[in-house]
Give the backbone structure.
Amino acid sequence: MTAQTASVAAEAAAILGRLGVAPALYTGGSLISRSPVTGEETGRLPVATPNDAEAAILRAEAAFKAWRLVPAPRRGELVRLLGEELRATKADLGRLVSIEAGKSVSEGLGEVQEMIDICDFAVGLSRQLYGLTIATERPGHRMMETWHPLGVVGVITAFNFPVAVWAWNAALALICGDAVIWKPSEKTPLTALATQAILARAVARFGAAPEGLAQLLVGAGDIGAALVDSPKVALISATGSTRMGRIVGPKVAARFGRSILELGGNNAGIVCPSADLDMALRAIAFGAMGTAGQRCTTMRRLFVHDSVAEALVPRLKKAWETVSIGNPLSSQALVGPLVDKHAFDAMQAALQAAQALGGKVTGGERVSGIAGDAAYYVRPALVEMPAQVGPVLEETFAPILYVMTYRDFDAVIEAHNAVGAGLSSSIFTTDLREMEVFLSAAGSDCGISNVNIGTSGAEIGGAFGGEKETGGGRESGSDAWKGYMRRATNTINYSRELPLAQGVVFDI
Ligand code: NAD
């Protein structure tokens, strides 16, 4: 073990200690956690068993029955306190995100800021869980809808946003009156322990939250499956690969449960003849290389109009050849490590497949000398493709940008939409018509469509999610809260008659 790698594990332990996580929660167990920064082991966590999951679900069910009766603005107070605790611990938790997910320091802190933002949003929302009053066709009647708490919410999260996605779900679920059980990624369990400890501080200050209101189950897919299979879990919010969603979605549907599926993306940008190329260059570089290509919204495909290809593509290649790659904890590098060897192998396989189909690859090689053999740093790859074929049609969770040229605007929209995923999209243009068509019913088929910004870096105020193989779920802002509640339509008769709807007569 080098001095450098030892310090990563030691730093993680020091942060966990400051946040009040007992060492017994991350030592002596069977789940090995590693930092992609160095590849070094950072913990051995005891994992939950299916019996533990069942017990947690029962506790959550009891907690839900009490919590649903607490007025929503009061529930908001717990989330307000959580936001305060996150503000106080932002530096530590952000650093731990960087250690465990390999993000740059600024991205690690940004992830915690996103948690704080959704807490603020949810607190406001706790006084705004509005239903409609609806015009009724019957005299002396009133019709309205009421939103009620839903039940136990199972939150399954991916490694690449190890804590923000929990917060998107938990902040809303808690103000909506639900109980939450979190199954974090087995690749990032330490940040989950830290977040749970921060939540515990908020719960202690709040004073009267029912026991078992927000629990954590550490483990792999089998523990996620225990939540997925339980009819006592009203909603499964699952974030991860489309492969996982293909298993989880049908299982939840088969028991008539509700699911929010936030799955893979294959996000594209289109650069039009009128685009501001300086702006496009920066947006594409961040969208494709930021977080080492490990965002669900990472830009993976780029369509450049023939007339600007010569002006843009060489500049992109230069950016790819010169972008700084390094240890995110000890440098200002813009690109950190891949999460593990599996991600590296998948990237190399995709690049080979692209080359076999005529792709010209810039970059993509492993970068050594940063943090030893157990860490996987790569130079992001830019691949000039003759057509949208083979690996271009799939999400490879690594920094590969496939660049293609186009001539016809209608054809490029069609090509843009001709992949399985439908998460995020962007167009670079100053032509009002192109912009509006892209955003129209005949334009991008994604859940997120942007103009003159990249595909990644969404704010919490909007509903987040995508269509098709991305799963159709929506989380975070706008009216995503409705997914965490059940709607009741109420009709009240304050007359002395009993008129039936649709003029039906049934006199006895
Ligand atoms: P993954 O699918 O390997 O794992 C995600 C989570 O699902 C983990 O917690 C895992 O334990 C759990 N899981 C796996 N199999 C399961 C099963 N059968 N039943 C229940 N749970 C199961 O994904 P990952 O590698 O951690 O994350 C990367 C993927 O996540 C990418 O495809 C990325 O696009 C996607 N992602 C999507 C969003 C979004 O909002 N759309 C956000 C982040 C990541």
Q: What stands out?
A: The longest helix spans residues 72-101. Residues 156-161, 183, 185-186, 220-221, 224-225, 228, 239-241, 244, 247-248, 262-265, 296, 395, 397, 423, 470 surround nicotinamide-adenine-dinucleotide (CB under 6 Å).
